[in-house]
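Reading a protein record of the kind used here takes only a little practice. The record below shows the convention in full.

——
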Amino acid sequence: MSKRIVVSSLAGVLALGGITAGGLAVASATTKTETTVENTSVRYVAPSGSGAGSLTFTADVSDDSGVKGSKVLVWPASSKLDPTEADLRHVDSAVCERTTDDTSRCTYSLKVTKQDAADMDKGTWYVSTLATAKDGGTAFAPRVATFDVAG
């Protein structure tokens, strides 16, 4: 689980913009909707007995062009991490299943072993997500959900 849950700083990313040629601009009569992340939930179940626990995060992602994917980062509040949109481009992906032409239900799941749970910081944890649309639009939520790990 250590490779999926971050407790240290993430590397930044340099993004280069596009180049416009000839001053040509094209206007569209259609209304473009923004990429959105809604109906989020997170559920943490600690391991018990001989069974593993789990962490599951779900979100409904929408964009009129369709959903390309969603990245998820789970991190303890005690780490003081402040993830950026660029940071989330390099973390684990959720599995997104299309529910309508413009909406997908994205789910991120982890198995949590007893050793994983013992190594986790106790207290509040956050979930960050970066949803990406097929047309390149994004929705970044640095603290979209919280859960507690008991001591």
Q: What stands out?
A: The first strand starts at residue 36 and ends at 45.
